[in-house]
């Protein structure tokens, strides 16, 4: 469980990125943190694995204050996949890349071998085992970065902008993958602008604007509220936009799922022939 | 890194900021030459003090002090080595060795100080312009200003990479000396690879915007030497002449001797 209590954070250059943010993320929960650029999303999640320590307030990970733990110790529990894979790939082969963190955490060579094979298989990278990560495409590099974090099986997985630069097929795979992780009782936190992706995943949504949490709740509840969405400078999902336009016909406006939307339309057409 | 903090330009306006970079550079060079000319503590203290008004007029005290603090570490090493060897290998008395090594450390500080004032008060654009008007080929000027401009970008990127690797359990401060250096490999490789990638992208972006299409470039802003610039240059020349004269004809007294009187 991650507990954020009245956390404020000011960068050394004076930018006030978080203002008294409080948030609780339960074990096994799937949370999407959304909001415009500079709303403080990435700053907030960097507190979860101790990369940043709050200027005031506290962050507790499983009851332990992050101020009292090193990033390396916290990282064992909280895996963080950065937005740009190019910021972390440096090994000669994909295999070494995935093993890097495991070696840092002091796993035994035999376990490392097993874990690497498992992670590569999970993300469909086994064929690139001996390839240099720099030779791979953008999407593949992103998957290597993901594999390198999942390999040590952290309890919490944070994904910063996982959908940027991914085609629809990859996004769909990512979605299924997150569903799989949550099924294993892992906590998944994604930071994203991608409203359509969030609408498809239907997670718990935390909406941020100007360093504060402005709304929190189910994706359906938050993303279909035009006022909230405007406040956070994002646009509602396309399905919601259509139904907001059709509101005067008496159709429901709180839809984000395409199947629900179809259902609602068919019901409406049957009732009004 | 704090040494570099002391070299980072901030856009403010002050009489020093408005001086022509060429005049300022000439002044810095004169300072450099004078500092190298003297081994004695007394003139170096004078050189150090002369520059302080510049710092205050320019209003860059905070950054300046930070750069000095960054340089202090190296200065202490310089002092240590000089003291050790001048004490061991000379038949001078310890007080002489002490004064000599203090002078060497202070010389380094004076050099850092003057360059710091120069870079703190000169915008990279002006610097590029000054190079261009000094008939340096434009390609070199551009490369220079681009390099200066990308320093903060690279610093930020290095920070992100460090965070990303720490999140994968990398502990920079762990292990013995050799291990600690090796710890930086996972940071340096992505940094260098990205820098090269970025430079290629920059080159492509520039080519696609017709860089180098016109043979003769003109500038909207031109640097013109004004009265204050001539005053600064004249002052620098006078200082240089004075310094040469003192060096050649007056034996510089040692501080210890003055204090004894």
Mass-distribution shape of chain A:
globular
How does the helix and strand content of chain B classify structurally? mainly alpha
**Low-confidence blocks of residues of chain B:** none
Point out poorly predicted stretches of chain A.
none
CATH class of chain A: Alpha Beta
Return the average pLDDT of chain B rounded to an integer: 85
- Helix count of chain A? 11
Rg calculated over all Cα atoms of chain A: 20 Å
Q: Could you describe the largest sheet of chain A, including whether it forms a barrel?
A: 6 strands, mixed
Biggest sheet character of chain B? none
Determine the number of helices of chain B (DSSP H or I, runs of at least 4 residues): 12
What would the CATH topology of chain A be?
Answer: Rossmann fold
List keywords for this structure.
heterodimer, A: 273 residues, alpha/beta, Rossmann fold, six-stranded mixed beta sheet, four-stranded antiparallel beta sheet, B: 261 residues, mainly alpha, 12 helices, flat
Could you walk me through the main structural features you see in this protein, from its secondary elements to its overall organization?
- The complex is a heterodimer of chains A (273) and B (261).
- With 273 residues, chain A is an alpha/beta fold.
- Chain A is built from eleven helices and ten strands.
- Helices cover 39% and strands 22% of the residues of chain A.
- Chain A has a six-stranded mixed sheet with strand order 6-7-8-3-9-10, with helices on both faces. Chain A has a four-stranded antiparallel sheet with strand order 2-1-4-5, with helices on one face.
- Chain A starts with a strand and ends with a helix.
- The model of chain A has no long low-confidence stretch (mean pLDDT 90).
- Chain B has 261 residues and is mainly α.
- The longest helix of chain B is centred in the middle third of the chain and has 29 residues, at 138-166.
- The mean pLDDT of chain B is 85.
- The interface between A and B is medium-sized, with 25 and 19 residues.
């Amino acid at each position: 469980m991650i507990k954020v209590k009245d956390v404020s954070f000011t960068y050394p250059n004076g930018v006030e990125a978080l203002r008294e943010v409080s948030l609780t993320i339960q074990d096994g929960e799937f949370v999407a943190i959304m909001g415009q650029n500079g709303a403080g999303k990435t700053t907030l999640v960097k507190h979860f694995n101790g990369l940043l320590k709050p200027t005031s307030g506290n962050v507790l990970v499983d009851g332990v204050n992050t101020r009292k733990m090193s990033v390396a110790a916290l990282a064992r529990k909280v895996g963080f996949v950065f937005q740009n894979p190019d910021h972390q790939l440096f090994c000669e082969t994909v295999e070494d890349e995935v093993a890097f963190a495991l070696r840092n955490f002091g796993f035994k060579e035999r376990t490392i071998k097993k874990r690497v094979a498992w992670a590569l298989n999970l993300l469909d990278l086994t064929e690139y085992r001996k390839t240099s990560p720099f030779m791979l495409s953008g999407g593949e590099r992103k998957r290597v970065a993901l594999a390198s974090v999942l390999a040590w099986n952290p309890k919490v997985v944070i994904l910063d902008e996982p959908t940027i630069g991914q085609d629809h097929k990859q996004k769909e795979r990512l979605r299924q993958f997150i569903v799989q992780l949550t099924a294993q009782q892992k906590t998944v936190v994604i930071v994203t602008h991608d409203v359509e992706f969030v609408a498809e995943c239907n997670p718990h949504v935390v909406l941020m604007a100007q360093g504060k949490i402005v709304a929190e709740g189910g994706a359906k509840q938050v993303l279909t509220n035009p006022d909230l969405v405007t406040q956070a400078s994002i646009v509602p999902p396309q399905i919601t936009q259509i139904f907001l336009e059709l509101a005067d016909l008496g159709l429901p406006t709180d839809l984000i799922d395409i199947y629900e939307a179809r259902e609602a339309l068919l019901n409406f057409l049957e009732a009004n022939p | 890194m704090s040494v570099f903090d002391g070299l980072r330009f901030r856009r403010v306006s002050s009489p020093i900021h408005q001086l022509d970079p060429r005049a300022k550079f000439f002044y810095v060079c004169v300072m450099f030459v004078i500092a190298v000319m003297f081994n004695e503590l007394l003139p170096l203290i004078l050189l150090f003090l002369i520059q302080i008004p510049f710092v205050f007029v320019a209003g860059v005290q905070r950054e300046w002090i930070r750069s000095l603090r960054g340089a202090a570490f190296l200065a202490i090493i310089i002092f240590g080595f000089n003291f050790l060897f001048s004490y061991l290998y000379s038949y001078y008395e310890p007080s002489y060795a002490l004064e000599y090594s203090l002078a060497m450390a202070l010389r380094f500080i004076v050099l850092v100080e003057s360059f710091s004032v120069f870079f703190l008060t000169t915008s990279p654009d002006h610097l590029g312009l000054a190079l261009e008007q000094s008939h340096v080929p434009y390609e070199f000027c551009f490369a220079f200003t681009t390099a200066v401009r990308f320093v903060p970008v690279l610093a930020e990127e290095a920070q992100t990479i460090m965070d990303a690797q720490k999140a994968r359990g990398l502990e920079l401060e762990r292990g013995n000396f050799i291990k600690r250096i090796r710890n930086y490999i996972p940071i340096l490789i992505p940094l260098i690879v990205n820098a090269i990638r970025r430079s290629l992208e920059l080159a492509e972006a520039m080519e696609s915007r017709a860089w180098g299409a016109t043979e003769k470039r003109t500038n909207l802003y031109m640097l013109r030497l004004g009265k204050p610039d001539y005053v600064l240059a004249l002052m620098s020349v006078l200082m240089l002449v004075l310094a040469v004269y003192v060096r050649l004809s007056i034996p510089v007294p040692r501080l210890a001797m003055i204090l004894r009187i």
